[in-house]
Every structure is written in C-alpha cells, then in structure tokens.
Amino acid sequence: MSGIFANKRNQLFSLKKLRNEKIDGGITEEDNSLVVCPSCKHEYTKDFIKKRLRVCPDCGFHMTVSARERIKQLADKGTFKEHNVSMSTEDPLKFPGYKNKIKDIQNTNGNKDAVITGVCNIGGHKTVISVMDSTFMMGSMGTVVGEKFTQAVEYAMSNKLPFVSVACSGGARMQEGMHSLMQMAKTSAVIEKFSKSGGFYMSILTHPTMGGVSASFATIGDIVIAEPRALIGFAGPRVIKQTINETLPKGFQRAEFQEEHGFVDMIVERKDLKKTVCRLLEYHERNED
Amino acid sequence: MEISVDNSLTAYERVKLARDPGRPKTIDFINEMFDGFMELKGDRLGREDKAIIGGIAKFHGIPVTIIGHRKGKTLEENIECNFGMPEPEGYRKAMRLMKQAEKFGRPIITFIDTPGAYPGIEAEENGQSIAIAKSIAEMSSLKVPVIAVITGEANSGGALAIAVANSIVMYENAVYSILSPEGFASILWKDAAKSDKACELMKMTASDLKKDGIIDEIIPEPEGGIQENPQEAFIMLDVILRKELRKYMKMSEDNIYKSRYKKFRKMA
Question: Would A42 be classed as within a structural domain?
C-alpha cells in the first residue's frame, strides 16, 4: 500500500515540474519566413508562431501542426520512441499515379505516411501515442494509417499502457479504395477490444477530423477532447450544401457545435492540452503489479 | 450449380444494374426468403428511421434477426425511406437489434443496399459519425454469427456500418465501394461527371473484391441482373445462407467473435 503513495508523490512532483516547464514546440533551428493566419490573415514569422504552438495570438485560431511537432508538444523531452518508421503503402489498387505521388510526398514531408505512432512519456506517464499528419495527403487513412494505428493499440493492450490518439484527417484515402474503408472496421474493432480489456483511450480531435476517421476510431474514445474551432463531422460541408441546397448554419460542425450536441467531453486550447492529457492519464492510472 | 460469373460487363454497367429501381429490395428478400417477419422499430432514444428496416423472422425454422437498408421502388416510397440513406437513428436502431439478437442467441443477417449515410444538417447534429463508428465497433464484437448480403449498391461507411460480418456475400452485379463513383470523381478530379472512369479504377465489383479478400462469396446473376429472375436469385442466396449459418452455428461464441475479428484484422 505504501508504494501507491510514494508513486503518487513522484507523479505530483513531475506534474509540478511540468507546470513550470515551458512548452516551446521543440524549436531547434531559426526560421524567419512568414506565416499567414488562415483565419485573420495576420502575418508572423515562423519561429514566433511555432513558439506559440501555432496558435494565432490575435484571433486564437489553432493552425495546423505537423505530427512531429505535435509529438514534441505532448511528449516529455527525449522520451518518444517511434514504431513502424518505414511502413509504406503497397498501393493495393495499383491506382494510376498514386505510387509516384506518394514518393514525392515522402520526399518533401519526410514521413512515409499520414500517421506517426510510438511510445513516450507524457508528464511521466508512459503512453502509447498515435498522431496523424494532415500535411501528408490531408491525413487520409489508407492501409498504412490503419495498420500502424492498430499495431499501436495492440502494443498498448499487451503492455497495459494508456493510448492517446491525435486525429487530423480529411477521411479515408480514396486511392486505396475499399482497402481504406476496411481500415475503419479494423481500427474500430481493435479499439472495442482494447476497451473491453480495460484499456484507457483518449481521443483528441483536431482540425479537421472528417469522414472515415470521425466515423471510426476518432469519436469512440473513453474521453474525447477537441481543439477550439476544429471542423469535425461525417460528411464534408460542401457535400451537405450540395445535397440539401441550403446554406449551413454558422459554426456548423465546429468543435463547439460538437460539444453542444454532446459528442465531445471538452474543448481544450493547445496551450493547456498537455496539462489536460497528463491529468486524465493520472486519473486513469492502473494500479496493478 | 453450374452458373458462372459474367465477366463481360464493365463496372459502370454493373453500377447501373445495381441501382435499377426494379432490382429486388431488402423487403423483397425478407418476404420471399423468410417466414413470419415481424418488423421492430425505433432506436429507443426518441427516433425511428425508415431508411433501415429490422426485425425477426424464421429462416428454415430458426429465428434470425434481419437488418437492412430500405430503398423504395417508386419515388413516393423512396421519399418515405430517404432513398435508403440512414440517419444516426437508423444505425442506433440497428445496434439495438443486434444487441438483442446477441442476448437471445439469434444469428443476424444484414442486407446492404445504400448510396451512403445521409449527408444532412440534422444527421450531423445527431452524431452521424459516432453512430456509424459505434455500430462498426459493436458489430465487431458480437458473439452470434453475422452474415452480410450485398444486394445492390453499397457505398462508404453508411454501408460498412451494418456489414462487419463473419461472412460477406455479394451478388454478381452488386457494387461495394469507399464512396459513390460520383463522390469519388468529384474528390479526385473535381468532376462528378467522370464517374464512369472512377468505376473502372475503384475495384468495386464482386470479382475484384473477392480477389482482394474483402468479400467471401459471389452469387451469380442471370443476364440482365437478378431483376430478370428474382426467384432464382433468392434460391441461390438461400443455399449460401444455409451453408454459412451451419458453419458458424457450430462454433462457440468466442470463436464466432474471434473468426470475425481475425477477418477484419487481416485487411491490409
């Protein structure tokens, strides 16, 4: 029994340390090129905006964060170990032009597909993490995203670790056809299995989380968190507009709309995200030896 | 049965056959192949969605739960059932009936025929995404046998939501795809009119999907589609359903779950 309290003391200590630690977005090299806020159109230097976690200081808009940068924002420094680094698509449909397109994106993006998975510490809590990258083909889910996600959940299951997912995706990857659709079944099924085994799954929805991703693993977390104003929904606004031939209400499908309709536990600003994740991890710690 | 699959039709021609209003609908399969169907309605959360039909009937003396997309044959019928495009309430009703089937040990047979889940304001307000996600997740863990029959067009998550089955059988001219060919063309080429080109690239026909291990059985159709000779189509499905049910009803609950889980786990 005394071990529990000693453990708690240590965690409290690391949480306090975290509170004093500045989240700096993991900047290493200087970059003074300009970034325009997509919402208010104000200009900033890249370094300036990166230090502010890519949140516009004027209008509060949460800009896109690459998966690598997101991991630096969430994981304790130097703790992230990536899994399945080189998994790359086998182009199941032999879709014209797809393989070359993927190669080009891999070369500029540096990653092999639209998700990065691995294990890290978050405020001292060992956690399996899956972060989608909307800079890679709109973060679309094909076979690689589905497989890496599934293996990450399996790793969490067999090591009795919590699982945190950061979703950021336009939906299923068209170029892999039905193989992409099947990833919805695969990822949802592994989450269901993980859940029944007592595993804790926190899903963070960021801009945008749509289609095949929102209609599978992303919306069924034990806890669902959204970033302010993130677009979250099944059908894209353009498709809905075309179908019903009406203008859409203001704020439609935004995080605040999802919260109001009961699909999101809380909206958390990026500056508070790590703290919130830590606290929830602490509340869901398993005490078993 | 020595009937072979006709390979001369293009995917686009099959899409047209699959969408033919004269093609048998879920209700026809229910009425012609099962005895004493009793429809069960409602999601128990305040709504009833007519785009999904569900209930209990007997199949060769065994009670089974049937769930399917409902499409109409006339414009009036189609307006009533929203052209077979469910809202979240439809998926919640489906989930309720599946859990009920599991409780009473009834096998589940689903009929898939939908342009997709409905893209509307209310559907989004009521949680289209999570309704589909939960239906997929819960279906994956059922401890009773589930057989899905793809009878017409099966598009997107709206089809998959009730197709996470132990065995997936598909009529020869039915199509199953990630999105409607029109939607696919408009996403990739910003031009919905290129849907015929999309059909050929999407690998959405029964024989393509069988090759890729996404479906398990193909039911051949007479020339001109099952609409030309529905009775024959019902008999052929009857044979397959009996065979599949016999196989899974011998399994333990745990193995029924595990074999379905493994099937989808392998999808790469």
Answer: no
